[in-house]
Design goal:
Elements lengths: L2 E2 L3 E6 L2 E6 L8 E4 L4 E3 L6 E5 L2 E4 L7 E2 L5 E4 L4 E4 L10 E2 L12 E2 L10 E2 L7 H10 L4 H8 L10 E2 L5 E2 L11
Parallel strand pairs: 8-11
Antiparallel strand pairs: 1-2, 2-3, 4-10, 5-7, 6-7, 9-10, 12-13, 14-15
This protein binds zinc ion.
Zinc ion binds next to loops.
Length: about 180
């Protein structure tokens, strides 16, 4: 399958899909929009988190692979992918999964090949506070992620509580602003 959009195309190689830029894309530029999306309260392997119990499902999002050195971020306010650095023509569009998902539907071992590859990839909530700090500094996370982690003291006691179904409730004893 090959789907082509204004600035990117979806390329399938050996049953593996990826999104590749067709042109130079500048820092902060919209890479592609995700207006044709649906929202749901539960996470799956094919959703991206936009709120505490709010997950977006979009065919294009499904094709954006993880990298520990990503070139894009999902803009949870404007529901689009946005470049966080200048992207060359032919470069794969990637984002940092733990910078969107506070837990992952499936943790995995990364082989993105970047110098700063974290190896084992878990959700944001399960990452080491030092890594969370660097994610916030590099801006490789969603606005939702920033809201969660900047409004909380980064320690396990002030982060949202997760129930058995993976749904989160804001901690009652802190001043976290965790509404979606
Ligand atoms: Zn990696």
């Amino acid at each position: 399958m090959e789907i082509s959009l204004a600035k990117v195309k979806i390329v399938e190689k050996h049953g593996y899909n990826k999104i590749v830029s067709k042109t130079t894309i500048n820092l902060n530029e919209v890479v592609f929009d995700c207006y044709q999306s649906s929202f749901q309260t539960t996470r799956t392997l094919k959703t991206t988190q936009v709120g505490l119990n709010k997950h977006i499902k979009n065919k294009l999002l499904d094709f954006v692979n993880h990298s520990c050195n990503p070139n894009s971020v999902f803009d949870t306010s404007e529901i689009c992918f946005r470049a966080i650095k200048d992207i060359r023509k032919g470069e794969e569009i990637t984002f940092f999964y733990p910078g969107a998902e506070i837990i992952l539907a499936n943790n995995f071992y990364c082989n993105c090949g970047s110098a700063n590859c974290l190896g084992y990839i878990q959700g944001g909530l399960e990452m080491d506070p030092k890594i969370i700090q660097s994610v916030l500094e590099k801006g490789i996370c969603t606005k939702f992620f920033k809201k969660i982690f900047l409004s909380c003291t980064i320690d396990s006691h002030s982060l949202p509580n997760r129930d058995r179904n993976g749904c989160f409730s804001p901690p009652s004893h802190s001043t976290c602003h965790t509404s979606s």
